[in-house]
Model the fold of this input.
Amino acid sequence: MTAPDATRPVDVLTVVSVAGVTPTVRRVVLSGTAEAVAAAGPTVNLLVPEVGDPAPRWPAVARDGRIVWPQGRHGVSLRSYTARRQDPARGEVEIDFVLHGDGPAATWAAAAVPGALLGVAGAGPLGDRPAGWLLLAGDETALPAIGRILAAAPAGTRGVALVEVAGADEEQALVHPAGVDVRWLHRGASPPGEGTLLVDAVAALERPEGEDLFAWVAAESATVRAVRADLRGRWGLGRAQHHAIGYWRRGRAMAPAG
Ligand SMILES: Cc1cc2nc3c(=O)[nH]c(=O)nc-3n(C[C@H](O)[C@H](O)[C@H](O)COP(=O)(O)OP(=O)(O)OC[C@H]3O[C@@H](n4cnc5c(N)ncnc54)[C@H](O)[C@@H]3O)c2cc1C
Done:
């Protein structure tokens, strides 16, 4: 019989290849068992080791999903990401990392080479819901999620996707229903998370008629708060009609380093 406090090891994935998608986005393809790949998304809690650590001291996962960290210094950081593609049959998962400079995850991704290891400590949903009319609003950290939501949307879906990136060279090809208008917003030299581009673009949108609509928003936390307030107030969206979540916080690490 299993003890009530039993833990299991985390899944560990191995980097197969890395590629630059745009000047600031690095795509990392990881391999693992079919089960581990199927369980690594759509949003995924990554355990990021220090660059070059050949034998990371991984935590374990308790039966209730809690992460049980090893005693003492381990150098592993917990961060949230999105699997832009999961292919259990091939045993591959693809993650796009924004190389924003600072931070354990961005630093790890910038240095990642084939053979490097990454742990997985659970996964979650994207938070989207099917609707006839969709508003998607986010920055480059939300682009993998926006790409998945658009690719899965039924052909007849209408709506608007607003994606804030630095410039034209940060745009990515998206598969989307013809009725969804994808608009790229260029922040130019303004640092990410400081301007009001996304907030202003949502504020300029008229609420579509009817109730069959859903808004999905993810970007820097203060930006998301402002967009959420607009959608709840001006558009009168109820809880079931929107999902708005801060994907990163300006000037602050997103999670403690375990
Ligand atoms: C559910 C979910 C899914 C996500 N999916 C993705 C994804 O697929 N790809 C992706 O790149 N990110 C994604 N993110 C965002 C990512 O988790 C954060 O950017 C995280 O802070 C990165 O960790 P880090 O260790 O690199 O930096 P941290 O240690 O968290 O932060 C260090 C510093 O970097 C700054 N910083 C963090 N992110 C950014 C940024 N994007 N631009 C500018 N400065 C930043 C912080 O303000 C802080 O000052 C997701 C977040 C959530 C919650």
Summary: The chain has a mean pLDDT of 95. The helical segments are 34-38, 104-111, 143-152, 197-203, 221-233. Residues 4-124 form a domain with the Elongation Factor Tu (Ef-tu); domain 3 fold (CATH 2.40.30.10).
